[in-house]
Amino acid sequence: MAKETVKKHSEFEELVESPDALAERLAHSEDFVKKNKSKLLGVFALIAAIVVGGFLYYNYRNTQNQEAQQAMFQAVYYFEADSLGKALNGDGQYEGLLQIADKYSGTDAGNLANFYAGVALLKQGDFAAAADHLKEFESDDYLLQARAYSLTGDALLEQGKNKEAADMYVKAANHNANPYFSPQYLMKAGVAYETDNDFASAAEMYGKIITDYVTSAEVTDAKKYKAYAEAQAGGKQAE
């Protein structure tokens, strides 16, 4: 290691102290550039294209998001007015949530359009489409994301997909668990498991409310439901 350090140090001193050696190195560098000029130009052009392309894409996405937000304004107005058909499909002048979610996918507004569309479709009874749109929604807001999981569970439960629905409710309850909403989601999970005749899992959900959320409004019902679920689970085991 010491020998290598000394050698490198000597080479450095030779370059600094010898103008001829430095000139020779520069000549080699110039030869390399001349021989590989086309390749180097290609590399520089590629780097420039990537930088410019990234800049243009960033501006494009910003423009898309602004357009989507403007389109969302009227769609949300119809949604809040409970005019779900116009909210989903537009009114001939303004685009609806379904078009916005598809056309502006990848933007914040397009993402939010999936949530609104999922809720609107759920209200209309189109449960399969509702679940699809709600599954597309992603948010850093943990309360809104948990709500989306729960609504997805509602859509699945309406389709008779009880186990999948229960799993979504559990996912909602565990997503940044809190004493305000988690007990509600656990209750829904318990009911979904009961509907699927999985009374042991149902009892587990109710028991979690009783032990982890002792001050919640759901505790009283959870105790009754847990006793029933345990009795049913015991009966199934006896069979």
What does this protein structure show overall?
With 239 residues, the chain is an all-alpha fold. The protein has two domains: 19-138, no CATH class; 140-239, Tetratricopeptide repeat domain (Serine Threonine Protein Phosphatase 5, Tetratricopeptide repeat), CATH 1.25.40. The chain is 82% helix and 0% strand. It contains twelve helices and no strands. It has helices at residues 2-17, 19-35, 37-80, 84-89, 97-103, 108-124, 127-136, 142-158, 162-174, 182-195, 199-212, 219-238. Helix 8 (142-158) runs antiparallel to helix 9. The radius of gyration is 31 Å and the shape is extended. It starts with a helix and ends with a helix. 33% of the residues are buried.
Total strands: the figure is: 0
> What portion of residues is helical?
over 70%
Count the DSSP helices.
12
* SSE string: HHHHHHHHHHHH
Specify the biggest β-sheet: none
Summarize this entry quickly.
The protein is mainly α and 239 residues long. 82% of the residues lie in helices and 0% in strands. α3 packs parallel to α6 (108-124), α7 runs antiparallel to α8 (142-158) and α11 (199-212) packs antiparallel against α12 (219-238).
